[in-house]
Design a protein that fits this description.
The protein is α+β, with helices and mostly antiparallel strands. It has five domains: about 5-100, Zinc finger, CHC2-typedomain (DNA Primase, Chain A); about 105-235, DNA primase, catalytic core, N-terminal domain (DNA primase DNAg catalytic core, N-terminal domain, Alpha-Beta Complex); about 250-365, Dna Topoisomerase Vi A Subunit, Chain: A, domain 2, CATH 3.40.1360.10; about 375-430, Pheromone ER-1; about 455-595, no CATH class. It is about 50% helix and about 10% strand. It is built from 25 helices and 16 strands. The longest helix has 30 residues, at about 105-130. Its EC number is 2.7.7.101. This is DNA primase. Its cofactor is Zn(2+). Pfam families: DnaB_bind, DnaG_DnaB_bind, DNAG_N, Toprim_2, Zn_ribbon_DnaG.
Length: about 600
């Protein structure tokens, strides 16, 4: 867990204008910067970045957040990776579990990573340069319908004939980074004597694989004629793990947002060719089955994932593995579908033969996950026989157990129950599903916490916008908060404690990031604060003090009204009455003291 103090310090050091400006063209507009929102299509800018609040907000789609939030939403990084990326840019080291690693070893690991990244970048530049003077490779790409523009967009290159072409790029051809990055292969004689080093990629069209930062971390090489393997990938390295990376995701990020979905294919050429033909929202797994890590990364980018597989048996097997990888991440607000093309086609060939509109129709009619799961479970089983129905349930059991107890799981259970002549509750008991949905008596909806309003809402807004003002609230004010009701008082107390933990230098961006990490309770207030003009802390301090005095006054007034019904003696009533009125007089004097003098 990254300490909150580090997050606050990081957000104080980075400048959100610089962070967003790397990806969005911004222009100064008054106190803020304006640009076209990267999260939805728009022709006139409604996306604002506030250098004072260190927050971005789109008045069109409502997207908003800090520098960390922007990196997560734009790049599809996880929270920790986003923090590390920003920290690296300002020379900070993220404190985490790896701090147990000795400093010298950590420095060595960082140096190794930089050396590998540099080697991959130089190799990528070399391969791109070689493509310009490789007529056979150019002819092959043209034959596949690719233009120079699309080849440049994906950084395509060519590894020429020869065993050690990289020697011209790396004067020290024996450097360790070349082997560790997978660019060369070291072959040792059986007796362990002589070692021969040679380039891994030769006579292949090269597809650079990038991470979420856009850095080249691996390559895929394709033969142009006959040869095995048809595709050759970089091996696993400290930079590259094929179970975590997706080809084309870096290039497709904006297109995925524009389209509202991501199309997952099986090969590099599918991705590049589909981008050429109007489907730039395509990505591909890297010569391996789809993993849960792939699914997590995709669902960070979009709410709709459509897997497109070849129509042959291998494509069907790949689809089944993708289904199994998806099941733990199925939620009611995400959509996952499966597109199956005719046996003789892959996405590239299908679009070329039938056109863009026909492929769009196939995407529109893709099979929902629920339907695919039931189809896989029932398969060829005879549902007219008890044995066939039992086998269908047997095959469905591990898939349903992998799912969380969502409404979609309940719908699948109901569908399976109908097909196998059982009830949903019987299936949930038989399958030992965690937190059965059909068996649970659905409770009436709770009213939940009362929504803040009036003075309570005003105080909350002031504390979130200027957390340092929490130091202004005394114990008497916290006692007076009970006037709002117990739940509201508890909510204010929790907010107050969190704001105080930020310290006297607490800033809006860091506090908002902390609140967002705890849930969505304050998203509405944060969004409203971002929309408003910047306010001075001293001005807001006066407003907060006035609001606190009003709360105290209302609480005293309420107690006075209840005084005679409290069952006290007349003497006790008199003493308490004088105490309450004295406190009211003190509040009045404080208010008058803060009035501006002429």
């Amino acid at each position: 867990m990254i300490p909150q103090t580090f997050i606050a310090d990081l957000l104080n050091r980075v400048d959100i204008v610089d962070v967003v400006g790397r990806y969005v063209q911004l222009k100064k507009g008054g106190a803020n910067y304006m640009g076209l929102c990267p999260f939805h299509n728009e022709k006139s800018p409604s996306f604002t970045v506030s250098p004072t609040k260190q927050f971005y907000h789109c008045f069109g789609c409502g997207a908003h957040g800090t520098s960390i939030g922007f990196m997560i939403e734009y790049s599809g990084m996880g929270f920790v990776d986003a923090v590390k990326e920003l920290a690296q840019n300002v020379g900070m080291v993220v404190p985490d579990q790896d701090d147990k690693i000795p400093p010298a070893q950590r420095a060595q690991m960082q140096a190794q990573s930089m050396a590998l990244t540099d080697a991959m970048t130089r190799a990528s530049d070399f391969y791109k340069q070689q493509l310009r003077t490789a007529p056979d490779a150019i002819a092959y790409l043209k034959k596949r319908g690719l233009t120079g523009e699309i080849a440049a967009r994906f950084g395509l290159g060519y590894a020429p004939h020869g065993w050690d072409n990289l020697r011209s790029v790396f004067p020290d051809y024996e450097v360790v980074a070349l082997a560790e990055s997978g660019l060369v292969i070291d072959k040792v004689d059986e007796d362990g004597g002589n070692r021969k080093r040679y380039d891994r990629f030769r006579e292949r069209v090269m597809f650079p694989i990038r991470n979420t930062k856009g850095q080249v971390i691996a390559f895929g090489g394709r033969v142009m004629d006959q040869g095995e393997p048809k595709y050759l990938n970089s091996p696993e390295t400290p930079l590259f793990s094929k179970g975590f990376e997706l080809y084309g995701l870096f290039e497709a990020r904006q297109a995925i947002r524009d389209a509202g979905y991501v199309l997952v294919t099986e090969g590099y050429m599918d991705v590049v060719a589909l981008a050429q033909m109007g489907f730039p929202q395509a990505v591909a797994t890297l010569g391996t089955a789809c993993t849960t890590h792939h699914v997590q990364k995709l669902l960070r980018q979009t709410d709709t994932v459509i897997f497109s597989f070849d129509g042959d048996k291998a494509g069907r097997r790949a689809a089944r593995r993708a289904l199994e990888a998806c099941l733990p991440h199925v939620t009611d607000n995400k959509t996952i579908k499966f597109l199956f093309l005719p046996t003789e086609h892959d996405p590239d060939s299908y679009v070329r033969e039938f056109g863009k509109e026909a492929f769009e129709q196939e995407i529109h009619e893709a099979m929902p996950l629920s339907q695919f799961l039931i189809r896989e479970a029932c398969g060829e089983h005879d549902l007219n026989s008890p044995e066939g129905r039992a086998r269908a349930q047997f095959d469905a059991k591990p898939m349903l157990q992998a799912m969380t107890p969502t409404s979609l799981r309940l719908q699948i259970v109901r569908g399976l129950a109908q097909l196998t002549q059982t009830s949903p509750s019987e299936i949930e008991v038989l399958f030992e599903l965690a937190k059965p949905v059909a068996l649970t008596k659905i409770a009436p909806p709770r009213g939940g916490r009362p929504q803040p309003k009036g003075l309570e809402l005003q105080i909350m807004r002031l504390l979130i916008a200027h957390p340092a003002l929490a130091q202004e609230i005394d114990e008497a004010a916290q006692t007076a908060f009970q006037f709002f009701g117990q739940e509201s008082a508890e909510r204010l107390a929790q907010l107050l404690a969190a704001a105080r933990a930020m310290g006297e230098g607490g800033a809006f961006a860091a506090f908002a990031q902390h609140l967002k990490s705890q849930g969505e309770d304050y998203d509405g207030i944060i969004a409203e604060i971002v929309k408003e003009p910047e306010t001075e802390r001293d001005t807001e301090r006066v407003v907060l003090r006035a609001a606190i005095r009003q709360v105290k006054h209302d609480a005293l007034k309420h107690e006075l009204s209840q005084l005679f019904a409290a069952g006290l003696s007349s003497d006790e009533i008199g003493v308490r009455y004088r105490e309450l009125t004295a406190q009211q007089d003190q509040l009045l004097r404080e208010a008058q003291a803060e009035l501006p003098t002429r």
